[in-house]
Amino acid sequence: MDNLPMAYTTELSHLVTGHYLVPEDCDEHQLVVGIRKLLRMLEDTKKTVGITHYTILPTTACNARCYYCFEQGVRPETMTEQTAIDVVEFIQSHCGNQKVFIRWFGGEPTIAANRIDQICKGLRQLGVDFSSKITTNGYLFDDEMVAKACDLWNLESAMVSLDGTEERYNKVKAYVNTDENAYQRVLRNVGFLLTHGVRVSLRMNFDRDNYREFADLLLEAKKRYQEHTLLNVYVHQINDHYPNVDAGRIHGDEEWFGKKILELNRLSRDLGFLHKKPALPFLDYRWCIAARDDAITILPHGELVGCPEQIGPDQFKGTLKKGVTNTDLICSWKQFADYERCWDCVLFPGCVKIINCAGKDRCFYKLERLSQAKELIVRLVDSSIRE
Description:
The protein is α/β, with parallel strands linked by helices. Helices cover 35% and strands 13% of the residues. Helix 9 packs across helix 11.
């Protein structure tokens, strides 16, 4: 207990044993770097027990035209029946008889709902235990599809983007081939998902143009879904290299986004629509699924990549037929980016930045996470003193 930045008392024991409070002369940066390397080495020496986490893109086509889509320029392609058969065989032969966790991604995955049906039926026939979640705009769902998704897809959760209130949402999404009010239709479908017991996360992607609409979106959620406990509503920043819907550039900088994320998510939490519990910083060494040996992303033509948001040919790890073959790429996704500006950050142990990741330089959620950590530590110390 020597050289602590404050006098040690028994009330501080949890913070000391958890390494939240360390001696003044402790080089925490090098300690974290060393532990990460050791944990990675230990994992690499173990025999891989199986690939259990799959992100599957049944299609890269989409019925919306969001101006900020990271897949702009990607050719719309949809999985064939034969590729879906190959997907089932790959999962069955690589899961190591363990439960499988699937995320349906796209494009808009419900455009290829028949391929999702086929994959799920195939896994069931082979006795593969699985559950799934989906990232979707929610437009193509209806009560019948939601019921099928729960029964056949084992769907447990859905992330639906809802980028503001009615006028802006319909403008930003710019759905093709529709004569309906898309905003009202998606809100209806969110209700179907919640009623069938699916956890729903409503995410408002925001910039300086629409952040003020988040409060109204929360009121809309309160009016429609107040009786449901499976709904989370939160915000996510729109990265600054995208123009806004009117081709301007009105994005905030890192500091502005950080403050708004803290402010808006706190508003959602206060209204009971953000249930994720704040946590103290923790040590992590494989935060991204692209760095994990038990996770893979499958593209519509059967190529295997690590990150579902970086799907170019230079990121192919292999194919369904040949398996994972690009060992150099696999190793490169395990290389950490180590910025000196991060060394003194209390979030550094749990904030893994990977050299290959397109988002490695962003730090938008720092203020929110710091605020939550401070509140938890104060609460913990106060509780210990009262006891």
